[in-house]
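Hi team,

As requested, here is the filled-out complex form for the adenosine-5'-triphosphate run. I kept the field names the same as last time so the parser does not choke. Let me know if anything looks off before we queue the next batch.

— J.
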Amino acid sequence: MQVPEQAGADSAAHGLADFLERRREQLAQRWADGPLFRTVFTVSRDEAVEACKAVVDALSEVASTGRLESVGAPGFGEVREQLGRMAASRAGRGFTPAQIADEAAGLRTAAVELLRDETEDRPDDEARDVLLALTVLMGTLRLVIMETTVSAGEELIARQQLQLLEVATPVISLWEGVIAVPLIGTLDSARSQVVMESLLQAIVEQRARYAILDITGVPTVDSLVAQHLMKTVAAARLMGAECVVSGIRPAIAQTIVHLGIDLSSVLTRSSLADALAYALSRQGIEVSQRAAGANPR
Amino acid sequence: MTPASDPATATSLPIGSDADLAWVRHQVRQFAAELGFGLVQQTKIVTAASELARNTLVHGGGGQARITPLRNGPASGLQLVFIDTGPGIRDVELAMTDGYTTGGGLGLGLSGARRLVDELAIETEPGQGTVVTLVAWVSRASAVRPGSG
Ligand SMILES: Nc1ncnc2c1ncn2[C@@H]1O[C@H](COP(=O)(O)OP(=O)(O)OP(=O)(O)O)[C@@H](O)[C@H]1O
Ligand SMILES: [Mg+2]
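And here is what came back:
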């Protein structure tokens, strides 16, 4: 009995591949209007239809090899990246993996309807087997989408964390030879490393003689943060730049003293403006208020 | 030894990563602000908590922090307990010395934290772990005392 059963399943899979090839256009048109594709390919509907066709092609290839339940079937390889991008786009709009899976399930409904219309007048065993095969295959597609959704989500989080690291440490050129890094948020070891690297790089690129580290936006300065600051100052000094730490608030200054941290090797100024004035005066640049009436206009 | 805190009012936070440290600091600051600590005292307590939580993570291999608001008549305070089951501290007095470190730090975490709060107690057993308890009271200077003077 094994052999004919296997043959039945195979012929159902081939029947399904046949159906998908034949109805490629209609299926793509229907899917293109579903939320999964429509909301991702917003610029042109043709683009959505093309993307849908690629998915239909992948499905019919998987069906023709008979591996309906295999998430790893080679046929999916072609569209995996595209599905991943779609999932990432949905996830980026705040959709949960479960919601995206629901949208993927919606694809099955459209395909089943199309197949039903076709086989309405001949409800035989073969039609039933093809329908079953379609259901199985669409379930597998849903799993593939789920899989890409989860990995896209993880990637998104990792990327956002990295972006946060980068965005939060801009190096600003204040004057020729004077750069500043306004530090905002928690200075853990990873952040400190990024800060030090971007600061040293900017010192080289901009030939900075003075680098201002403004810590107004750093909520806590404990022994580790202080140590990172001192290391950064020492490294900048080796590069030929003098560091000024500004923005130490009164509560933080008192806390640093009680902790017992010796910041005497670090040049400090209370505000970024003071630090800039210091750096300018050291370069022989004097900033003074223009006397009233001296404006030549 | 500090009196046992009421577990019903204690908040437990895990310490297992840098992100957890940030959360502990955030929560401690929240509690301190609600209890009426002034800005300077808040900063001191949060900094002490940061030191001990990091020791729990780095030296103790992770553990937890317990935050308990305290009341003693009109006085409000905050108790913070840091618990780990790591290697313990062999010589507590040495560990409390300014500049003593086994890990390339400044060696100011324990001794510095001691100066930032009202009480600091260490219970430790080599191979058994470490429990550090901090207590800080809202300072009289910043509290409103009717009829005094
Ligand atoms: N929870 C702990 N478990 C085991 N050993 C600890 C623990 N806490 C502190 N120690 C030991 O006590 C020493 C001193 O701690 P302390 O926090 O003062 O300095 P540190 O952590 O080495 O440097 P940092 O100044 O950056 O805090 C540590 O180097 C470590 O050997
Ligand atoms: Mg420490």
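Two things worth flagging: Chain B has one domain: 11-137. The helical segments of chain B are 18-34, 39-58, 92-95, 109-116.

Thanks,
J.
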